[in-house]
Amino acid sequence: IGPNRCGPFGLLQPVADAVKVMLKEDIVPATADKVVHFLAPILIFVPIMLMFAVVPIGNNLGLLPDLNIGILFVVAVGSIETVAVFMAGYGSNNKYSLIGAMRSVAMMVSYEMPMAFAVIAVVMLASTPGNPTLSLQNIVNAQTIPFALLLPMSFVFYFICALAELQRTPFDLLEAESEIIAGYHIEYSGMKFAMYYLAEYAGAIVQSALIVTLFLSGWKGPFLPPVLWFIVKVFAVFGFIVWMRATWPRVRIDQLMGFAWKYMLPLSLVNLLVVAIEIVWFEDAIRWWLVPINMAIAGGLISAWAGMFKLRGGAQVESQS
Prior knowledge:
Blueprint: H1 13-23, H2 34-43, H3 45-53, H4 70-78, H5 80-92, H6 95-126, H7 136-141, H8 147-150, H9 152-166, H10 177-180, H11 190-215, H12 226-247, H13 253-281, H14 290-320
Helix pairs in contact: 1-11, 2-5, 3-4, 3-11, 5-6, 6-9, 6-13, 9-11, 11-12
């Protein structure tokens, strides 16, 4: 299954692909803004590397020392990727590239807020009275129970927003071949073109690492070394992201935007209110008996909200007919 011509069992296929694109001709459109066109594929890697540098892969182990504002740093730096995508669309001086870039800006603005509210819920649960924490290390240490179980709605919403940030299926409208050819990187070739695909998969690894850190207890686990546990969890999440690309269809642009503003944003605010109430009522909101309660609340809220919009949609259809 898959490419098997390069090396044993096709293991050298990524190397062969990299060599191939490096040898391709680098074509720059005559009407392009050459400086912006050149800087965009470089800039898109900057936020990915900065985000991964602050993610702890073990107890007091990471590329950089633990930041006391680690999660704030991650959220702030992650938004820089939108600038790089817009630079690619604007600098190429191509209408399809610009449409793809504008879709990126609209999508990032829409999905940044539900993602931020999901992160705030994690910070609230990991903090102690009088001692709020934004440290990724402290967030992992606070997870005696994985926050994916205690905050199921935040976990699902963060995962969906991560897919939108990565422009992965079903949110890959920035490069929808049937609508805008190749999207914002249509005018790129050679290694510059490859940089965007490298950034896409590097970003998927980074978001998988953040999901593991925020919701899946980071490096914690029995028997295996902490670093190995972290790697296993990251690749499990990454494998699920790849599986979604192979199984889910692409949504329309109106569905994409409506889902963020009509469903995820209000529900993430309600979820934040529920978490705040639990923290006020119980001295320690990290308890196993809260897991089924929170899952029931999440399922009930999502079902009720979806049912309300379904009824409104049916009423609008009847009035039009």
